[in-house]
């Protein structure tokens, strides 16, 4: 159950950061204005993957 909570928190963080960064990307790179939703999905996916890599995992001591 705790794993689901961690993944859900990572998804929420990725979506929030993606939503905050997306206007800057749309303004800085005019080519992204036509394909905005695709860029947003890719941005959230990359942020989620980076969070999964950087998030410290629980250590199970036997």
Query: What is the CA-based Rg, rounded?
Result: 15 Å
As a percent range, the share of helical residues equals: over 70%
Q: How many separate helices?
A: 2
Work out the number of β strands.
0
Biggest β-sheet strands, sense, barrel: none
Order of helices and strands: HH
Structural class: mainly alpha
- Outline type: elongated
Task: Give the low-pLDDT segments.
Answer: none
What fraction strand? under 5%
End-to-end distance, in Å? 20 Å
* Overall pLDDT confidence: 89
Task: Describe the fold and architecture.
There is one protein chain. Helix content is 74%, strand content 0%. It is mainly alpha-helical. Helix 1 crosses helix 2 (36-54). It is elongated and about 50 Å long. The protein starts with a helix and ends in an 8-residue tail after the last helix.
Give short descriptive properties of this protein.
mainly alpha; 74% helix; 2 helices; 62 residues
Please render the helix and strand layout as text.
Layout: H1 2-28, H2 36-54
Helix pairs in contact: 1-2
Short characterization:
The chain has 62 residues and is mostly helical. Helices cover 74% and strands 0% of the residues. The chain is elongated.
